[in-house]
Amino acid sequence: MATLNRRWIYARPLEGPLSVSNFERRDAPVPQLRQGQALVRVRLVSIDPANRLYFALQAYRPQLAPGDVMAGFGIGEVVDSTDPRFRVGDLWHGDFGWQDYAVINSYDRHEYWHRCSEGHTEQDLLGVLGITGMTAWFGVEEVLRAQAGETAVVAGATGACGSIIAQLLKLKGCRVVGIGGGPEKCAWLTDELGLDAAVDYLAPDMAQALRTACPSGVQVYSDAVGGDVSRATLPLMRRGARWYHFGNLSAYADARPGVPAERHDSFMSEELRAHCHAEALKPRFLLVFDHYCHRLEAEARFAELLRDRRLIAPSTELDGFDRLPQALAGGGAGKIGKLNVRISEGQGAQA
């Protein structure tokens, strides 16, 4: 087994836009196990918009401090164990961080750490069958409760979670309008995902284009973006419409210690606030881990949809441990679907 653990450290406080200079590679010895633990070699690391919030606040995980291993969920293989519940060779999903080797404990919260079901690709285990897919599934089932014939708007529809939500809403029989960035992504939404319409949020006439695409108003809104997209969508919603808010991507770039990301409603004008009050429009938030008691049920349904080709799970994979900082700092520019970085097997910490 390797003797050194490659690690990317959050080394320099975030004072402006996130860049690769905020990270530093610092190798360390591979951790030694105590009773009730397992050593996992990380294979695939998830790059998510929410990673940017880890520097600014404590959410579902502790806030990062300079000197910490950069946090990130991933898929890894158990290579050593002092507890029979962790079997060597099994794949696990967990908050392993940006490193080759991580330790999991028998007493850790099980929504963060779980043994992966067999028969699935690592990309799917980290994406559609992981936090991304579960955020989509429980948001659609528990919050949006869409009905056939309703008009649904999906912000960030070319993203990891939005692309899954858009497809689930189509399967419910909704008329789905996806929001994407640029003509190529909008074409992908209609040609590949089969959405009914797509609106380019980069276009100067975005708000008018959205009104044209939703002549009967909006009954269902999946919102991971906030900002201009929400400003254009909310006036089209009336009483009884459902608003699933699970991200505020438009404000993440400004989040840093002492200056947390903007509130979900910071984009609203007084007129728009009055509209939301009059129509009783309120965002509903959902912490996906609160619903993980039903994770395996959702996983089985997703597996069926994937097998029957009724749903696709687009992903982009970058190769190489040293690409992690740029993958996050660059925001996955131009990518569609889930973004992951593979840590090459056979090139572990001895390299």
From TrEMBL:
GO terms for molecular function: oxidoreductase activity, acting on the CH-CH group of donors, NAD or NADP as acceptor. Residues 162-250 form the Alcohol dehydrogenase-like C-terminal domain. Residues 6-105 form the Oxidoreductase N-terminal domain. It comes from the Bacteria. Keywords: Oxidoreductase. Coiled coil: none annotated. InterPro entries: ADH-like_C, ADH_N_2, GroES-like_sf, MDR_fam, NAD(P)-bd_dom_sf. This is NADP-dependent oxidoreductase. It comes from Mesorhizobium australicum. The lineage of its organism: Bacteria, Pseudomonadati, Pseudomonadota, Alphaproteobacteria, Hyphomicrobiales.
